[in-house]
Recover the amino acids of this structure.
């Protein structure tokens, strides 16, 4: 068959012949029409060979006309928009569409790896497990790289996806999954009652099989009826129609995931339009009207281009006006498939034979064949010939005769499988139905019903009736009274089937799972080797694990396995369908959460100023924290941080500490709650004073540290570390609401309500005296270390002032309502400059806390006890508190536990690094000699060399000892001296200045 | 999965944070066997396959702790109560029950 | 022909006769009235335990009882990663033993489980994370495990197409263990089953344990759906369901069952060679030999026996995925599934005796059980055979929570859903 011959029928089809579209496949240019899929357009152009199979690289054509397609997968688009494994059968044609076949080299027609087919006697199911074991080193070096290169189908794009995705959540009373006849009637019945309805269908036009069949409903053609239904539904305010939308998964509490292909039918999404949209649909009731999928019959070479599902043949003829071949053999075990001869004849396509697997063809089919002059045969196709396309079919009649019939198309139908996937996503078990030889829905999740073909009702009359009933029932269940609606009327039809699965005896490969190249012989081999449970079969042969999840394969395989084991199909079992129903682009799940928008950014009040100054920000959880503020002439971050530290220690510095968690505690029982939360005593805390506190988890480990300020008789204000703000707040709420609900106390998170700045250094009081309103006396005598006050600043702005020090200097923290944060920061910066001071960031803050031996994140890592970090003596002996009892366990009180100490390099020029492990000076570097590790390290401008904090076994008893700081990852092994963790001002004279 | 918060109504799973078993209660820390009782409280779990009472926090909502009764085999939500109400009822200290539940 | 050796030669020989000579990979055994040892649970750990009992400890009168089909639990529901990049001394030797057993597995079992050491790279995005990985990597090196700390330039050379320039949390570097990798998960169960079977172990499928026979504080056998079976010793290896099974023996465990989802994409030509974990979100990924991107993230976060999860975690995982590797946006998710994890109270497993004599426990594997399979089998077999812990599993005591000797890698305490 030469390329370019038009297989487009002269008439018919729901395509727009006035809108030709040009496209290319494998570099050849073709033309199709609006309303085509890539598959229908390729068929119209006589292109039959479109793909190669996964393992044997067998030539493949188009099997289906829907999302179940296992063969016709292509790379669609190019460059950063290249999408591998796109089904030609669902890709809408657009002008300029560019597609390539995949998994072949050098070309589709001549594929070197088709030699795999020659070796196929070796490459049977599971052969990998039996070989490639010798020599052992060859697996990663030789065998596996070879296998990896050969595997995979299409190629992912090399560059970031340039398109956008978005997510929405929708709520409705009734969700209808699938817009075929049952779905349309269900949606209409529910919509007329006033219920909020969402109707989703994977195709770009509503109607499902009706678009593909020559049926009449209410005196209209199927296509006309669909469009009138669509128009009616579109007119309702309470209906949302979602074409091009696949409901892919059922989740708990009536939540469904769906993906809308918003712009996949155009070359590039229009500006401001996403490529796809992820819908989270919350439905009170759901009606699954997802239709059914036709299954092939397993016979020799049944995967050759030109073997097509009978329903797909009808789709291409009736919906797309395309002849999928010139001369056809129809091969079926059921009335519906047999009746395909009528559609073929109507389209003027030769029917060479009708092969019915049944020993007795029903009267009406025989009559039809006779009327059309079609030769009807009771028998089977044993195999077909023609490598790149069917040329003839070999037929074995029921009475044993053999004949060969020339043809280029085999329309095959082994019956239909209801699309029950959605009913099993929540672990529902399907039921076998002998009448239709297929699985139908079993117990359904709450709120779900099934109607039409998905429920195993294959006649149109039944679909229309069931859909109408299900729609009305679902609406009624959500409180809407549906008026009775007349069920649309249509003619009779025959849907009888007699189970038939596998034509045995062909010497050719008989494919069960097309895409994964699983043959009937593979199923038999698996059975022989004991892989007899359906899960074993699936995993051993890879059956059903391709991109179609075995929609055309699984039941055939089960039937073959059942026959081999002598069991029935339901006894043999059924694998569970897992979401998604059809594959969904990964980008759709992420939505806009990528790049800078991966997570929200929390911006502290000094953020704008920091950006203006060229300050360096660092990600701290969700916060963007100012890290340091470089000035001209500074060589690197260390230069800057040194200058900032020195300025604080000599003059004054200001630092944005607004990221600290802040919790307001009020009520008469405030102190009772606080006492149970902190391990140290808080009862003696007076109004106007603050105190450092340590909170434990119930298991005795340190949870967090921070300050408690008492602002009033029953009013406390707590700060937490930046990292633990949310955790501590939740923990406090648990204590208040659950552990001690009788306490009369309320909590509120106030982290974002207050801008808070540390003002530190010998000149900090001078700086603040120009900020705090003059009526407030902040001299040392009246506002000593650990004082706390509510006051005003900058001429009446409400403020809170705490005399706290993390740096070890005379220091304060001043807080104002967040809306004044930017203004106060700028004022503080200006005034600090006047005093020779500067802003400092989290880096300098970190250096100064290490110089003072204050613990922070690296020490509060969830596995340290208060004693481990030198705070054991703070624990109150007079009260109970969270963590006290379990903190007394042997393992937590062991004197051998690594404990916080400081470190100095013996050679002062050496750099220290957190993460180094401590080994005794003369001991070998082994796990047995591991005595702890460096938690924090910094260059101390005050001391002029690197210092560190770390947890060392019996550390405090080893001051003065020299140990190894062993860091093989960075090729370092330094001798360090064990010292007190407080490097600066151990007496605390400066902070009390 | 969706939880019906007594304060806020039915909300999506991503608004809530799970803590764990609500059937364990904090023992008396002054009891003689406090160490053993706290070990059981903190570490041993019934872990039932079936209806279970669980503590959930309405993190991006009202900040209420909830006792959610949920079937761990099916994820079906069988009931949601304010943890504070449950705790007050348990201790028999009902005089302070505030009317916060829907 | 059960017991036929696997090699390229036997495959070729069989190819010539249509593979008609292969017999079952393991016998479908009928349960005997009594065994020296019964392993409850035909997953990876149970089958490995039986194999090592027979192979290393000479105990061959062993039955593995599986309520469904072997390998239908977590051994076939994971993301196939093997690694020994642990932090704490209680864990590192155990997982390194496991790694070494993986390295010799195929020759040991005569079964190609496709152990593929293509490396694992844990990315870090902050100085604090770098320091934590330095601590971990140095701990690994002290235990003789391979580890390298990479800076961002080195990571960029390995994977130039990650999002470096537009990232919310820039990649600062990574901790690399080159010997880590992936193993074909189902093949592990089948390989151990076949090898154990060849040593005489009975693998009894569709045999659910419904109770324990406990006489005078000693476990003397089990009740099953296929009748009572006596045993000298009974070992539980049914992670995911440990609490349910142990409850039948009157035990309450420090374990919660949680669901962990995993994902695979459509097969594509090679994108990523080794395993990678994102340090700024919950996302890890590798690519199977077949071409599917295999990835996962955090557990759903609530107790569950349902073997399936919900959408928020799916979205969370893919947000991490797209933040890290925006080129995969148009690759499609093929399938998602859920497994039930035994989440222990400190994130580390339990291999120990129980308060019931003769009843032994192998449980609490969290989401790390797959990589542990060989060592878990070996150490559990050792415990069953010798009645004392294997040197590499000494820390995995059941009473460690009472004594305060938790093995808490993450430092989140007694909250299983955070481990």
């Amino acid at each position: 068959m030469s390329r370019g011959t038009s297989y487009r029928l002269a008439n018919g089809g729901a395509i727009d012949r006035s809108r030709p579209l040009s496209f290319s496949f494998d570099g050849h240019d073709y033309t199709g029409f609006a309303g085509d899929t890539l598959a229908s357009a390729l068929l119209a152009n006589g292109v039959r060979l479109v793909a190669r199979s996964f393992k044997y690289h067998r030539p493949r054509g188009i099997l289906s006309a829907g999302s179940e397609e296992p063969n016709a997968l292509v790379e669609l688009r190019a460059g950063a928009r290249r999408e591998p494994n796109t089904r030609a059968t669902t890709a809408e044609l657009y002008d300029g569409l560019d597609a390539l076949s995949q998994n072949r080299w050098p070309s589709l027609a001549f594929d070197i790896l088709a030699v795999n087919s020659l070796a196929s006697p070796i490459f049977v199911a599971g052969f990998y497990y039996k070989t490639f074991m010798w020599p052992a080193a060859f697996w990663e070096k030789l065998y596996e790289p070879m296998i990896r290169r050969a595997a995979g189908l299409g190629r992912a794009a090399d560059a970031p996806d340039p398109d956008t995705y978005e997510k929405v959540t929708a709520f409705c009373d009734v969700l209808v999954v699938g817009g075929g006849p049952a779905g349309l009637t269900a949606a209409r019945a529910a919509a007329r009652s006033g219920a909020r309805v969402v109707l989703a269908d994977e195709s770009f036009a509503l109607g499902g099989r009706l678009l593909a069949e020559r049926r009449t409903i209410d005196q209209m053609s199927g296509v006309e009826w669909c469009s009138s239904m669509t128009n009616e539904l579109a007119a309702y305010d309470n209906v949302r129609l979602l074409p091009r939308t696949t409901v892919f998964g059922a989740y708990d509490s009536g939540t469904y995931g769906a993906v809308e292909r918003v712009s996949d039918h155009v070359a590039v999404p229009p500006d401001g339009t996403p490529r796809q949209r992820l819908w989270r649909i919350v439905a009170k009731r759901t009606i699954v009207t997802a239709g059914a999928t036709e299954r092939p019959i397993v016979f020799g070479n049944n995967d050759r281009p030109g073997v097509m599902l009978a329903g797909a043949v009808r789709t291409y003829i009736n919906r797309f006006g395309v002849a999928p071949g010139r001369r056809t053999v129809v091969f079926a075990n059921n009335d519906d498939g047999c009746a395909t001869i009528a559609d073929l004849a109507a389209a003027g396509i030769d029917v060479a034979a009708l092969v019915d697997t049944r020993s007795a063809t029903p009267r009406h089919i025989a009559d039809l064949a006779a009327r059309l002059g079609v030769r009807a045969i009771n028998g089977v196709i044993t195999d077909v010939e023609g490598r790149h396309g069917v040329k003839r079919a070999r037929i074995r009649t029921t009475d044993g005769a053999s004949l060969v019939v020339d043809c280029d198309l085999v329309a095959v139908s082994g019956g239909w499988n209801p699309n029950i996937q959605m009913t099993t996503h929540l672990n529902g078990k399907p039921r076998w139905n002998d009448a239709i030889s297929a699985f139908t829905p079993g117990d359904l999740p709450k709120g779900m019903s099934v109607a039409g073909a998905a429920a195993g009702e294959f006649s149109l009359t039944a679909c229309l009736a069931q859909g109408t009933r299900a729609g009305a029932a679902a609406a009624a269940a959500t409180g809407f009274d549906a008026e009775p609606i007349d069920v649309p009327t249509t003619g009779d039809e025959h849907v009888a089937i007699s189970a038939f699965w596998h034509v045995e005896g062909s010497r050719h490969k008989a494919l069960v799972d097309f895409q994964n190249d699983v043959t009937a012989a593979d199923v038999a081999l698996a059975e022989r080797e004991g892989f007899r449970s359906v899960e074993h079969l699936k995993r051993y042969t890879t059956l059903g694990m391709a991109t179609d999840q075995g929609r055309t394969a699984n039941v055939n395989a089960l039937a073959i396995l059942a026959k081999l084991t002598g069991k029935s199909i339901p006894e043999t079992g059924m694998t569970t369908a897992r979401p998604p129903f059809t594959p969904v682009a990964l980008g759709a799940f992420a939505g806009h959460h990528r790049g800078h928008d991966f997570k929200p950014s929390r911006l502290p009040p000094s953020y704008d100023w920091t950006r203006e100054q060229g300050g360096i920000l660092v990600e701290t959880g969700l916060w963007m924290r100012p890290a340091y503020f470089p000035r001209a002439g500074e060589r690197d971050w260390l230069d800057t941080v040194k200058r900032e530290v020195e300025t604080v220690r000599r003059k004054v510095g200001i630092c944005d500490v607004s990221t600290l968690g802040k919790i307001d505690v009020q009520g008469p029982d405030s102190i009772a709650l606080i006492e149970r939360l902190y391990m140290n005593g808080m009862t003696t805390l007076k109004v106007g004073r603050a105190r450092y506190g340590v909170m434990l988890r119930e298991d005795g480990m340190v949870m967090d540290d921070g300050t408690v300020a008492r602002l009033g008789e029953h009013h406390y204000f707590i700060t937490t570390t930046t990292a633990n703000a949310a955790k501590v707040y939740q923990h406090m709420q648990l204590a208040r609401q659950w552990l001690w609900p009788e306490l009369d106390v309320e909590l509120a998170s106030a982290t974002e309500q207050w801008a808070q700045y540390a003002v530190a250094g010998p000149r900090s009081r001078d700086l603040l005296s120009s900020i705090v309103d003059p009526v407030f006396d902040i001299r040392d005598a009246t506002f000593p270390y650990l004082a706390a006050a509510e006051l005003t600043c900058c001429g009446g702005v409400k403020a809170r002032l705490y005399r706290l020090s993390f740096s070890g200097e005379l220091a304060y923290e001043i807080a104002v309502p967040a809306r004044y944060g930017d203004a106060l920061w700028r004022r503080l910066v200006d005034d600090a400059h006047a005093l020779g001071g500067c802003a400092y960031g989290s880096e300098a803050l970190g250096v100064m806390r290490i110089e003072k031996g204050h613990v922070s994140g690296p020490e509060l890592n969830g596995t340290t006890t208060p004693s481990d970090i030198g705070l054991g003596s703070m624990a109150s002996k007079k009260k109970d508190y969270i963590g006290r009892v379990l903190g007394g366990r042997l393992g937590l009180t062991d004197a051998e536990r690594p404990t916080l100490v400081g470190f100095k390099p013996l050679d002062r020029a050496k750099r220290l690094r957190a993460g180094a492990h401590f080994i005794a000076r003369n001991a070998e570097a082994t796990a047995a000699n591991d005595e702890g590790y460096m938690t924090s390290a910094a260059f101390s401008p005050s001391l002029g060399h690197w210092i560190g904090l770390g947890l060392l076994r019996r550390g405090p008893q080893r001051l003065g000892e020299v140990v190894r700081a062993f860091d093989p990852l960075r090729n370092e092994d330094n001798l360090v001296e064990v010292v007190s963790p407080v490097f600066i001002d151990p007496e605390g004279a400066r902070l009390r200045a | 999965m969706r939880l019906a918060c007594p304060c806020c109504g039915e909300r999506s799973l991503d608004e809530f944070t799970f803590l764990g078993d609500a059937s364990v209660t904090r023992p008396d820390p002054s009891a003689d066997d406090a160490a053993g009782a706290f070990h059981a409280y903190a570490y041993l779990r019934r872990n039932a396959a079936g209806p279970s009472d669980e503590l959930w926090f309405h993190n991006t909502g009202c900040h209420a702790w909830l006792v959610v009764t949920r079937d761990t085999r099916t994820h079906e939500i069988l009931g949601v109560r304010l943890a504070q109400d449950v705790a007050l009822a348990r201790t028999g200290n009902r005089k302070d029950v505030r009317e916060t539940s829907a | 022909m059960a017991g036929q050796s696997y090699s390229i030669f036997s495959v070729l020989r069989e190819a010539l006769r249509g593979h008609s000579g292969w017999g079952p990979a393991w016998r479908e055994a009928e349960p005997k009235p009594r065994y020296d040892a019964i392993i409850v649970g035909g997953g990876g750990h149970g089958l490995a335990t039986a194999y090592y009992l027979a192979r290393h400890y000479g105990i061959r009168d062993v039955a593995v009882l599986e309520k469904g089909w072997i390998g239908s639990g977590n051994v076939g529901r994971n993301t196939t990663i093997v690694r020994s990049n642990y932090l704490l001394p209680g864990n590192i030797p155990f997982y390194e033993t496991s790694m070494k057993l993986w390295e010799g597995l195929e020759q040991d079992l005569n079964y190609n489980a496709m152990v593929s050491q293509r490396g694992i790279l844990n990315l870090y995005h902050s100085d604090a994370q770098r320091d934590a990985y330095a601590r971990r990597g140095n701990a690994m090196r002290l235990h003789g495990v391979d580890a390298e700390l990479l800076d961002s330039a080195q990571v960029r050379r390995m994977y130039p197409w990650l999002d470096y320039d537009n990232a919310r949390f820039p990649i600062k570097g990574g901790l690399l263990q080159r010997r880590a990798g992936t193993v074909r998960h189902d093949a592990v169960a089948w390989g151990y089953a076949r090898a154990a079977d060849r040593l005489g172990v009975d693998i009894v499928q569709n045999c659910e344990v419904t109770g324990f026979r406990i006489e005078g504080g000693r476990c003397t056998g089990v009740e099953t759906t296929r009748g009572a079976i006596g045993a000298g010793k009974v070992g539980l290896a049914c992670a995911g369901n440990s609490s349910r099974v142990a409850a039948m023996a009157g035990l309450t465990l420090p374990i919660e069952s949680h669901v962990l989802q995993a994902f695979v994409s459509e097969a594509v030509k090679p994108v990523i060679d080794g395993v990678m974990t994102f340090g700024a979100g919950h996302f890890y990924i590798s690519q199977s030999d077949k071409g599917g991107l295999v990835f996962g993230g955090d557990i759903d976060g609530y107790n569950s026996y349902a073997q399936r999860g919900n959408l928020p975690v799916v979205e969370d995982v893919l947000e991490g995925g797209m933040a890290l590797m925006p080129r995969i946006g148009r690759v499609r998710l093929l399938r998602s599934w859920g497994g039930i994890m035994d989440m222990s109270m400190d994130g580390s497993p339990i291999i120990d005796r129980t308060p019931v004599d003769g009843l032994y426990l192998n449980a609490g594997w969290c989401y790390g059980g797959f990589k542990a399979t060989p060592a878990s089998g070996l150490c559990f077999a050792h415990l069953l055979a010798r009645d004392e812990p294997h040197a590499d599993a000494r820390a995995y005591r059941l009473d460690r929570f009472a004594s305060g000797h938790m093995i808490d890698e993450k430092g989140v305490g007694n909250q299983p859903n955070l481990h």
Summary: The helical segments of chain B are 34-43, 83-91. Residues 95-102 of chain B have pLDDT under 50 and may be disordered. DSSP finds two helices and six strands in chain B. Residues 64 and 76 of chain B are 21 Å apart (CA to CA).
